[in-house]
Design brief:
The protein is mainly beta. The chain is built from 1 helix and 12 strands.
Length: 159
């Protein structure tokens, strides 16, 4: 197939925004602290580092209480979060290990866009990034330029 016949990634007038392989985002219903996330097209659902995850019932609905370390490489700052549970799913990580995870739906703010999407809660303490942005967030919103970072701004100087 010649290069002229290859499909274009973006059509003229497309509303897709280009992101780098890592970007800053905020989950305002959980914390106002920006979180550095790795963009992961191999992950179906976004994942947030969470620990001490405790389920509880509030007004007949299942919720979770959990702690997060919003800053990369910083265990001193902890934020307590609460959210209703949208689902529980068996998720396979990149190493093929399967884990049952709580799924919550929260507001995402990435660049100048705000929207709701699902994310799973998992212990990512041994991982460099506190959050992965999966295809559920990228689809119909963003296209990834794997050679760049922080295209949507944010504070790349934060811890």
């Amino acid at each position: 197939m010649s290069i002229e016949k290859l499909p274009r990634v973006r059509q003229a007038g497309s509303r897709l925004i280009t992101v780098g392989w890592r970007e800053w985002l905020v989950l305002p219903e959980l914390t106002d602290i920006p979180i550095k996330a790795k963009v992961d097209t191999g992950a179906k659902t976004s994942a947030l580092h969470a620990f001490f995850i405790e389920p509880y019932t509030l007004e007949g609905q299942l919720h979770v209480k959990f702690l997060i370390h919003p800053y990369q490489k910083n265990l001193d700052v902890q934020v307590e979060c609460h959210a209703p549970v949208a689902d529980q799913r068996l998720v396979s990580d990149s190493g093929g290990h399967r884990e049952k995870r709580y799924v919550i739906e929260r507001q995402f703010v990435i660049g100048d866009r705000s929207f709701r999407a699902e994310l799973t809660l998992t212990d990512r303490d041994s991982m460099l990034f506190r959050m992965l942005l999966g295809r559920n967030v990228l689809k119909n919103r963003y296209v990834v330029d794997s050679g760049t970072s922080f295209l949507l701004g944010g504070n790349s100087k934060k811890p």
